[in-house]
Design goal:
Distance between the termini: 32 Å
Oligomer: single chain
Structural class: alpha+beta
Largest sheet: 5 strands, mixed
Radius of gyration: 15 Å
Number of strands: 5
Number of helices: 6
Strand content: 15-25%
Helix content: 25-40%
């Protein structure tokens, strides 16, 4: 199920609690690891390749990342999936977060195949993740939380995937 931009913004605002910056109030590291492990296994099966995974990031609201290697994609560009510690939020990007403005831009530049993106999106949705487009996360943050001093132009990405 693809959520509308308005629904995704409402979800981001709902998850934003100024008292809990790095993780939500009832965050359980072990419970978060289960769907993340399922995501890694699913992507490895769907792409018939070993994916690298980093998880349980410290001093960050990002839980972890899964990288589909470039050799396993149609365009030869790796796909990075970032998972937040908040509400099963996920971000999909070509190469790295910020390498392209959006997955549509990466597709337009020939760096991301639509079928590959569909595989990743389907895996995320099947596992209960809410896929938030990078261009939405790059919007200026206007929520109630006080983000770290080192962030010069806070965005929603900083709030739910950034370091503290």
């Amino acid at each position: 199920m693809t959520e509308s931009e308005a629904d995704l913004l409402a979800l981001l605002r709902e998850l934003d609690n100024p008292e809990w910056l790095e993780w939500p109030q009832h965050y359980n590291r072990s419970e978060t690891a289960i769907p993340f492990g399922g995501l890694v296994a699913r992507l490895e099966g769907d792409f018939a390749a070993r994916c690298t995974a980093e998880q349980d990031a410290q001093d960050s609201s990002e839980y972890g990342r899964v990288v589909v290697p470039a050799a396993a994609t149609m365009c030869g560009t790796r796909i990075v999936v970032c998972v937040s510690k908040f509400g099963s939020l996920a971000l999909v990007c070509a190469e790295n977060p910020g390498a392209f403005f959006s997955t549509a831009d990466a597709q337009a530049e020939g760096e991301l195949d639509a079928a590959d993106l569909t595989k990743v999106d389907r895996a995320l949705v099947d596992l209960g993740y809410a896929v938030v487009p990078e261009e939405l996360l790059e919007r200026d943050y206007d929520g109630p939380s006080q983000l770290p001093w080192h962030v010069q132009r806070p965005s929603w990405w900083h709030r739910f995937f950034g370091t503290f």
